[in-house]
Amino acid sequence: MPRVTATRRLRFNAAHRVHNPVLSDHENATLFGKCNNPNWHGHNYILDVSVTGEIDPKTGYVLDLGRVRDIVTRTVLEKVDHKNFNLDVDFMRGVIPTSENIVVEFWKALAPALLPARLSRLVLWETENNAVEYHGE
Ligand code: NI
What is the pTM of this model? Predict the structure, then answer.
């Protein structure tokens, strides 16, 4: 059977401050620039969620992308949309909220939630120019 990757795009917005508490304020400002602003800033994030598998002969789908949308919304987006990654999001506690760290935490929540479908790729766009990609390795 052919194996196909299907991708659902979802959007959310959230605030954060990229800050490492073990470093001095000066080091943080030098390292993270505007993203270290003490009074937060926000992004309109785009999350691309891909599942890979064989085509279900009954539906013709790998997995109904409406179901992907519902699972991703319930599992992560409702916890982060219109929230502050530093203050409001339980699974980001103690984690510097870069896109790299966010995408790994999203994976930990989404991979089991999407079973038996296989999550194969997450791409998190922080701006139209900057994205991170994770395959669960
Ligand atoms: Ni930022």
Answer: 0.95
